[in-house]
Automatic annotation (TrEMBL):
Organism: Halomonas salipaludis
Requisite cofactors: Mn(2+)
Listed name of the protein: Xaa-Pro dipeptidase
Residues the record lists as binding Mn(2+) 2: D245, D256, E421
InterPro entries reported in the protein's UniProt record: Creatin/AminoP/Spt16_N (IPR029149), Creatinase/aminopeptidase-like (IPR036005), PepQ_N (IPR048819), Pept_M24 (IPR000994), Peptidase_M24B_aminopep-P_CS (IPR001131), X-Pro_dipept-like (IPR052433), X_Pro_dipept (IPR022846)
Amino acid sequence: MSVASMRDRDALHLAHLDALQQAYAAHLEAAGVDALWIYSGAPHQHYADDQTATFRAYGHFMHWAPLPELSHSWLLIRPGQRPLLQIHAPDDFWHLPARRPDAAWSQAFEIRLSDEMTPPPCAAKRRAVIGELDAEQAKAMGATLNPPALLAALDHGRLHKSAHEQACLIDANRAALAGHAAARQAFEGGVSELDIHLAYLAASRQREASLPYDSIVALNRHAGVLHYQHYAQTLPGERHSLLVDAGHRELGYCADITRTWAGPEAPDLFVSLIASMQTLHQRLVAACAPGVAFVALHGQMHHELAQLLVEHGVLRCSAEAAVEAGFTRAFCPHGLGHSLGIQVHDVGGRQDAAGAPLPPPTSDPALRLTRTLTPNMVVTIEPGCYVIPMLLEPLRCGAEAAQIDWALVDRLAPCGGIRLEDNVAITATGQRNLTLAADNGH
């Protein structure tokens, strides 16, 4: 990145923090709060062990300070004053202590290094605190703990991404795409899931603890396990398919990309399905625009998936009948996508602007985004098509079994499934595919 580009990015970040300061002032006034502490959080030890699980700072803390690994630290937000960032940095010879950040964004804060885990003092009378604390800790601070109305407002504020946040997401996508390219190359070279995973980490320049979520690296039938969690160390005898769902984190913001590739032993039907799913995916991305209800877009996915399966001979009924009978929900049981940002499944996606719950339809309980799309939302679009035995077997034995060509299903089974996922920003008139922008170097 050039010096001029870096200056532009620094200006975007400072503008993001200025807007955040104004938004918090309005939210705190509405909540009747004069000062707000935000706790970064603390690592948790495994039960009966002295090792801790991988730590990640609280999302609302990272919304201000892009320091995902900073534990036992505090932000103090007071309208009309610079935010105070207290960094826990005790003298320590076991670990490298946290240091004072010198990036341009740090100019927006009053920064203190402290060897204490306790919050910075505050003289304000009406105080609140958000984060992973218990009632006794909040009581000792004289603060209201995690007030629901305030949290709902802050969650809603995370739903729409600033120019700085979208730039971070593009950078995260760019690094993730380098990992996906390396994963595909490793797959074509004929190596195990573990080796593909390691190739991804090396090319995307990250360690496992830095990943925004555990990568899914699934060969063959494993691609039909939606959140497949292992990395087999041996190469299977045949290579039918590879599904990689993996991301990257940039200044706290998460890329979430999925790609599926056919292997040398894949049947022609699977190769054709991937091509058709790519076209379906592109149509769904193009359909994203302000005013589009995401629940309706999810429904469109099911109708288009049904038509695709009819055209390939997998289903022997009309697309409408397939959706009505629930066939497509057996082939794709997950939602079309979710809000994306500091968290992979970012907050605010199942509530309206006033904070009232917007639960998913009973037919689609896994749908994580139920809102109408508005400018500057960033969402994932990730249609899928899988052969999942536990979902398909009841149909095989049911009254409508003849509506499915089980010989074709069995032919596809060794491939597991297909998922394609890009990250999409909603614009004033349509959408911008951030994954494509990253791939094109924009």
